[in-house]
Design goal:
This protein is α/β, with parallel strands linked by helices. It is built from seven helices and ten strands. The radius of gyration is 19 Å and the shape is globular. The two termini are 14 Å apart.
């Protein structure tokens, strides 16, 4: 059994693979102050009832959590081969970026998974704390992309900065023209971000001079896949799949 761990700024996702089949996943809050011992307690609780993993693959966009994870695996899973995506780890993804060290490991892993599953050129739209647009060449190279504030950040900012606005449930309203303040917020958030995604995809495709395959992933991708016209595929577990592929390259 392979344990994959994707540490994002908001959530941490654990995935369990039997061969190339993802058979279970868990989502917990990311705590930047968490200790290695607390992580071990959480992981042991979630993995209870499953076999001990015979391999671990990790990517983290939060350096403090990555350090504690490294300590935790060394202390509590000392006999288990562990791959933490970073410099020196083989991914097979050329980074055509001015400073490759600036590229988050999740973007590298997503590039590998997207090109393996769908080929290229491709665009991965990752709906997380930020909305990431990762652009992949026909040969599987990471070309760069764009970063925008995520949907949930925008919800929080509106509620905090506008006296008469409030947080709303992220579900499609009855119509684009909202008849209540809650529906107006839902319309602006969902369809506004859908317009952003569709517009960015069109601009990137123009710059590529090609018709890329577009893959949606991330915590809110299930919702945005219903309102974005430009998404060809919805793969919520893209990062976990990429971690499995990275682990296999580093056995």
């Amino acid at each position: 059994m392979l344990l994959t761990v994707d540490v994002g700024n908001t959530n941490t996702v654990l995935g369990l693979f039997d061969g190339d089949r993802l058979f279970e996943s868990y989502r917990i809050n990311t705590d930047r102050r968490v200790t290695a011992d607390e992580l071990a307690l959480n992981f042991r609780g979630l993995l209870a009832g499953h076999p001990e993993p015979d391999g671990v693959a990790v990517c983290s966009t939060v350096p403090s959590v990555a350090n504690e994870l490294r300590t935790m695996f060394q202390r509590y899973f000392a006999e288990v081969p562990t791959v933490i995506v970073g410099p020196g780890v083989k991914t097979g993804v050329p980074l055509l970026y001015d400073n490759p060290r600036e590229v988050g490991p999740d973007r590298v892993v997503n590039t590998l998974a997207a090109h393996t599953l769908y080929g290229g050129p491709a665009i991965v739209v990752d709906f997380g704390t930020s909305t990431n647009f990762d652009v992949i060449s026909e040969r599987g190279e990471f070309l760069g992309g764009a970063l925008a504030p995520g949907i949930e950040i925008s919800v929080d900012a509106l509620a905090q900065r506008a006296a008469r606005l409030f947080q709303v449930e992220l579900v499609p309203p009855r119509s684009v023209i909202g008849k209540t303040t809650a529906e107006a917020l839902q319309s602006g958030l969902l369809y506004g971000f859908a317009g952003q995604v569709d517009g960015m995809v069109a601009r990137i495709a123009d710059e590529l001079g090609a018709d890329p395959v577009v893959i949606g992933t991330g915590g809110l991708s299930h919702l945005m896949a219903t309102v974005c016209d430009s998404l060809d595929h919805h793969e919520p577990d893209l990062t976990l799949i990429g971690l499995r592929l990275v682990y296999e390259k580093n056995l």
